[in-house]
Amino acid sequence: MNGIQQKGKVVIIGGSIAGLLTARVVSDYYEEVLIVDKDHFPKQPQERNCTPQAYHPHRFTNRGKTITARLFPGYEEDLLAQGSPSSLNKTIHNMNQYGSMVGKYPRNDIKFSRAVLEWVLRERVKQIANVRFLPDHDVLQLVTTSDRTAVTGVQVRDRGQLGEETTLFADMVFDTSGRASKLSVWLEQMGYHVPAPDFLKVDIGYSTRRYKLPTKLAHIGEEWDAIVMAGQPAAGTFSGCFSFIENNIAEMLLYRPGGHFPPTDEEQFEQAIRGLSSPIISDILQQLEPLGPPRGFRVPKLYRHHYERMQQWPGGLLVLGDAFCIYDPIFGQGMTVAAIEAEALENCLRQQWDDPQPHFEQRVLQTIQGVIEPAWWLNCSNDLQWEGVEYISAEPLKGITFGQKYMDLYLQLATTTQNWEQYGLYWAVNTLSVSPTEIMKPEIVKTVLSASEEGKQLLDELNQLYGNSLEQALDQLLPHFTQATFVQHSSHPAQTNK
Predict the structure, then answer these.
(1) What integer pLDDT is reported at residue 6 of this predicted model?
(2) Which pLDDT tens digit goes with each residue over 312-342?
């Protein structure tokens, strides 16, 4: 692709969050945008059959919210209209193995279910004049040129009784179909060599139950934002997360990696909550009304594709979101990564608009991999602490052993000293607001490692292995995360208000 076509057509495979964000971005650069999805889109907020994870907790981190608010100004007002609550000045209680950090939530973030968020964004996208939806259609395969060097559209089949097949031609196809993506298979069928993905065998178990807050107990919803009790890998205990979503509904999640799944039986679920490290959540739930039994969700493995390493890549094709990489849902990074990827795509389109260059698609894939890497590395650092979790890749994760030890020591220091500045940086990194390099600057690393005997021993080991220059040691030891993915968006005259 030698230049962005101001008049052209885009087909987006998949109409979930990543697809909607992508549609908003590309609608500024293409004349027609068509979103194809196998599901039927509900007229009101509700879970869809093709998003089985939708019942479980979802969130944007502050970075994801900021990007989404720029793309869809005022979208949180639409969430509020659906009964979603604000977190501002409500109590948030974070407990880990070293203690608790309890305080008032400082931002006016709006809490929601996945169904409400998706519906709100979809309604916004429907208002964009050059975007259309084609629901209830399966994408069967990519359509290509005769030499298979470029994708020219997709073959689709109506999921209705007639089952008609149609070719949808396009100047660019985006795969945002998530975990159901068939892109690797399609590329191999086209004769391309696809590198093996990285895998993190996690065997994650989720169980979520929802509760109704009685009107007479409205003060509970006014007081609490969230209570998070982190499971302890050494003890193999469940994590527990309690929070509110729209219309005075609370959701309670139990979670654990490593193949030991939390129960979905009602009594066993409640018993597991009573077994958490504090009775706070159990005491609150005893006052609420269950809306149904717990629902389970399982994630056998996480994956990260390496499409950016392919020596040959067909023109007219790109991939974003869970079709490229999936993350441990407990960290709430997936939707934020999708938003950062959409922003990165927007920046690439802008650059191509200003200065058209060949190999546009390959540059976008490399940029998106730069977005993926920090979240993937942080996921692996956390999950590899659990027994039974295994990393499978052609090459090891750089600095992961040190990263695990250091991040744990950092959390220990911030919690035991009740240092909110340190704790805030810890969460800024884990919510992808800043690069992991910000928490691993030499002066910060030295402070953290010098605060405990275990840390001092680790610092001595670094000095022995890499010499007395901590800066040089960290430069050799840790990944060089792409700083450009953390640069805030700047405006461009080609953008329109939609």
Answers:
(1) 60
(2) 999 999 999 999 999 999 999 999 999 999 9
* Cβ neighbours of residue 321 closer than 8 Å, sequence gap 6 or more: 14, 16, 17, 18, 19, 22, 176, 178, 337, 338, 341
The residues, any chain, with a CB within 8 Å of residue 251's CB and separated by 6 or more, are: 56, 57, 113, 208, 209, 210, 211, 242, 243, 244, 245
pLDDT of 225 over the 70 cut: yes
Contact by Cβ (8 Å): 204, 298: yes
For every residue of 34-57, which 3-state class applies, written as one string?
EEECCCCCCCCCCCCCCCHHHHCC
- 10 Å CB burial of residue 74 (0-12, 13-18, 19+) is exposed
Contact 193, 311 (CB under 8 A): yes
Average pLDDT over residues 6-21: 93
For Cα atoms 61, 62, 64, give the angle at the middle one, nearest 5 degrees. Answer: 65
- Within a 10 A sphere around the Cβ of 126, how many other Cβ atoms? 13
Quote the CA–CA distance of 139 and 37 in Å, as a whole number.
8
Strand 151-158 to strand 165-169: parallel, antiparallel, or no bridges (unpaired)?
A: antiparallel
HSE-CB of 398 using CA atoms within 13 angstroms: 11
pTM: 0.94
Of 239, 256, 263, nearest in space to 299 by CA: 256
From 43, 71, 45, 42, select the one nearest 58 (Cα to Cα): 45
- Other C-beta atoms closer than 10 Å to the C-beta of 297 total 19
CA distance linking residue 337 with residue 304, whole number of Å: 13
Does pLDDT of 5 surpass 60?
Answer: no
For range 432-444, the mean pLDDT: 94
Output the pLDDT for position 2: 42
| Torsion angles phi and psi, residue 205, rounded to 5 | -120, 130
Task: Classify 168 as helix, strand or coil.
Answer: strand
Q: How far is CA 285 from CA 55, 143, 488, in A?
A: 18, 53, 40
Q: If 0-12 CB within 10 Å is exposed, 13-18 middle and 19+ buried, where does residue 172 land? A: buried
| 448 and 410 Cβ atoms separated by less than 8 Å | yes
- φ/ψ of 200, rounded to 5, equals -120, 105
43-48, long-range: CB < 8 A, 24+ apart: 44/119, 45/82, 45/113, 45/115, 45/116, 45/118, 45/119, 45/120, 46/115, 46/119, 47/114, 47/115, 48/115, 48/118
Q: Rounded to an integer, what distance in angstroms lies between the CA atom of residue 108 and that of residue 103?
A: 15
Reply yes or no on whether the pLDDT at 455 is more than 90: yes
Of 329, 368, 451, 429, give the one whose Cα is nearest residue 52.
329
Handedness of CA 76, 80, 83, 86 (dihedral sign): positive
Model pLDDT for residues 131-158, shown as the tens digit of each residue: 999 999 999 999 999 999 999 999 999 9
Whether residue 237 contacts residue 277, with contact meaning beta carbons closer than 8 Å, is answered with yes
